[in-house]
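Check the record.
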Amino acid sequence: MAVFANRRLWIAVLAALALAFPLLVTNSYYLHMMTISFIWMIAVYGLNLFAGYTGYLSLAHAGFFAIGAYALGILTVKAGVPFWLAFVLACLFTTLLGAVIGLVALRTKEHFFAIYTLCVGYIIYLIIDKWDSLTGGVRGFIGIPAPADIGPLSFQTPVAQYYLVLCFLVAVIFTMYRLVYSLTGRTYIAIRNSEELALTLGISTMKNKLASFVLSVFFTSLAGALYASFIRFLGPDIAYVSVMFDFLTYLLVGGIGTLAGPVVGTLLITFLSQQLQFLQDYRMLIFGPVLTLLIIFYPHGIAGGVIRLKAKREEARRLDPEANRVAAELAVSSQGRGERHAEEG
């Protein structure tokens, strides 16, 4: 009960800080970076759902992120579709495409699945880069509108866009929480732990893996659409392999298969990246060894390591009274034997 109350306290503090951030920090650059971090978090939650809870590593999610972003741009700029309708259609189109790709990709397993999705992600990058008439190619895609007003709510200012992205992030986290602690989430975890055992229990692994993959693509496409509406300029680099490995870095550092991992990893790496900007291309000389050491000594990431440390403490606290009881019984038993020996003597 105390752990649950402590968790609720931390959530309340973090929520209050997120709401008060634009009031506490007046620098527009930091506000911009925090909004971008929220968008990355949504994408990483999508990756975490499939890789962390279902156990399959998809390397195509940067491509789905880019499709969501470009679909919004094309629908609003070239087709003239109203913003929010285009937003919904962009997410649905990317999700449908993810379902088609998932039907094929999920026939493979383990590293074959990762290699297949890596190839799919690179093909998406090449299509965006070479299809000049549709995507603008290397010149980029410009003129994407900011989020349209909803009644009296306007999203034309950076602060309003910050709160809009924050609302989407909270909705994604809430969805993930309800999913992970539901029967569906337990099914995903069972598949991750042992797909063969899940099959023997009567679980339809293909159907559940596809559902997890499609939902993870939806989250990632949602992040891509938000990115397009916030940055309002797109280039093919957002679909490149380096973006995919940025997502993986955020997830591994924060803690794969944890609810707090995407938040912790994204904030930490984004903050460190900004502090190390003066090193430019040499930043990876620092990130590389640090990430390697983290994976060796903290394979479950920062959030995962904290969770396991708490679990060990709780277990030790639970076993402590039991150990004291056994020790007391042994002491009483030894004392009784000593008294009997004294009487016999």
In short: Residues 301-344 form the longest helix (44 residues). The first strand starts at residue 141 and ends at 142.
